[in-house]
Design a protein that fits this description.
It contains five helices and no strands. The chain is mostly helical. The radius of gyration is 17 Å and the shape is globular. It has one domain.
């Protein structure tokens, strides 16, 4: 049994995830997220800090897309899964990964790190959207 991973699809998913993160946190929810995190709205990180953050984000996006590609490839061994469309496979995978991995982490942050439900919604919403988009790219392009 061999799991086939399309590296081009993984790289496109990395770029898409980076773009979603930029739009989500820099445009759509920048003020609300910063306020919920307790950041000074007038403070701007220096260029070196921003570049370091973006580099780590790209590495994280790559690891996420790479592992999700293996998860999606494994669906081929589930009886009846080959009859599912890429849309259904992508959505099923994305929701199961989001509910099983992202939601518990964000719930723990509400309880133990005193994050607000608003911050929970912003962060888990980003992870839901990003996971769906990445899963669809990977499921259609394999």
């Amino acid at each position: 049994m061999e799991l086939k991973i399309n590296i081009a699809a993984v790289l496109v998913a990395v770029v898409a995830n980076f773009a979603i993160g930029f739009v989500w946190y820099a445009a759509l929810f920048a003020k609300a997220w910063g306020r919920e995190m307790g950041y000074d709205p007038d403070m701007r990180p220096d260029k070196k800090t921003m570049l370091k953050g973006m580099a780590f984000m790209i590495i994280g996006n790559f690891l996420f897309a790479w592992v999700l590609a293996f998860y999606l490839a494994g669906w081929q061994y589930i009886p009846g899964a080959k009859e599912m469309s890429p849309l259904v496979t992508g959505i099923n995978s994305a929701i199961s990964v989001w509910v099983g991995f992202f939601v518990p982490v964000h719930l723990s942050r509400v309880v133990w790190e005193k994050h607000s439900w608003k911050l929970f919604s912003i962060n888990s919403g980003y992870h839901l959207v990003a996971t769906v988009v990445v899963a669809l790219i990977l499921s259609y392009w394999t």
